[in-house]
Amino acid sequence: MQVQEIKDYCMSKLGAYEECPFGDVPICYKLNGKIFAQLYPYEYDYKITLKCTEDAGQFYRMAYPEKVVRGYHCPPVQQPYWNTVFLNDFPDEELLNMIDLAYDTVFSKFSKKEQKRMLEEL
Fold it and tell me: Which among 14, 33, 37, 71 could bridge 29 via Cys, Cβ 3.0 to 4.6 Å?
């Protein structure tokens, strides 16, 4: 999947926006101030780090051991909740599923009241 396709897909999520709070990279995709995806778009370091549940994170690391690892940049206590995906030759449909999961994981952490407010505003 090409960089622009990934960017467009992340931005297609309801209420998602793009920021670069750490410099040029990573390009962060956020929902209501919370990061759900961090894209590293350079050919020599083409990867994305995605929010996940602990179970889903472990599943993807087992299903794609050469392509999916614990969030490489996270402190050990947060690593089970982030996966870094090396994007060269990674299945497009699976990546889209993982982005959906990342977004849904972040959205689900907001209170029901906050979720309702966000949906009404968007």
Answer: 37
